[in-house]
Fold this protein.
Amino acid sequence: MRATDAEIGQVLRALRMKTGRTAVEVALEAGLTPPVLLLKAETGQAALTGAELGAVLDTLGANFQILHLRLSGSDLDQAALTLLGTVAKLMEEVAG
């Protein structure tokens, strides 16, 4: 399944909103030129290159795996709890 530009934009906007930052702030930190490119990407009016997308995700404290999980509708909080539970069990096995 290939995500549309609009779907990627929606995820970027949601990730950005969680940080409480404006699109211009994120775009400038990510090195996007012009900064309005991020706003256009968030609304599906423009597509970011792989490098631009990676820079924006990095600025937002995310990565391509998180983007993929969000696009597939995965519950990241549940995924994180599952991962933490698995790590805790492995640590117990190693220590025990």
